[in-house]
Amino acid sequence: MILKGIHHVSAITANAKNNYDFYTNTLGMRLVKKTVNQDDPSMYHLFYADEQGRPGTDFTFFEIVRAGNTYQGNNSISFTSLRVTSDHALKYWEKRLDEYEVVHHGITETFHRKVLPFQDHEGQRIMLVSDQSNEGVAAGLPWSESPVPQEYGITGLGPVRLTVPELAPTERILVDVLGFRSIGSYPANQQGQPDIQVYQTGEGGTGAEVHIEERDDLAKERPGRGSVHHVAFRVADTEELAKWRDKINKERLANSGLVDRYYFQSLYFREPNGILFELATDGPGFITDEDADHLGEKVALPPFLENRREEIELNLVPLQTDK
């Protein structure tokens, strides 16, 4: 049993319309599924990804209209990365972010890769990462109808960074339970803090890394709009997911058991520092209930919510996504 990499990252927005405008018009990602939070169908759940929503390319958002500000801190997923093909692509993005007046911090280097950290309109912490020297998990393919030229488009999710008050408990779960491998470290931005540790799974590379920042000077993060809810890791299929459930049960980690999300099967648990992990299968995928040419245009509901469609749509503010 080997996790194949990052499956998706799910975050919080307070406004679905503004979120849709930013991630499709500014970042050029494709909305591949406009659906609802299956645990609370009163809120949108929006999935942005590559042309078909391949596993490892999905950056998703729950709309929580009353979400307050995020007070950044410990016990959090503190950065999400988005992959681009090359260092040259980062130069395109630096100009584009300036054009759209997006707060960014210029091109720099992290763990031997060129990166471009920035924030969305709600303070979501994101980093564009160059795949110039990547030899690991393959990237996705940007949507050909994106406002961003395909050669510069976002190709998937890169490393996520966790910020925790104590490294060892989280490291044990990643390495001893989930099978990640320690592959190095790099200096923290804050003087006097330990180096940030890097772990990889599967084929490795930008699509299969977790970075852990240990901080002894931060309070626990208070999440809100612009924070990350959870990170999911890729599992081949439902049969393998059941084996992961058995392994996690043997570790006496409280978990959700197998959950049918229709587009994939999932299992959720929290590691000792309180960060929510999900294991999710690669299939069946987002083309299960919509044609590939019309993904994300209508509100899609899994079969177990379809009989509540009228009630659900009445409670959602209409979001125009069919162009």
Automatic annotation (TrEMBL):
This is Glyoxalase family protein. The lineage of its organism: Bacteria, Bacillati, Bacillota, Bacilli, Bacillales. It holds the Pfam family Glyoxalase. Residues 5-131, 156-282 form the VOC domain. Transmembrane segments: none annotated.
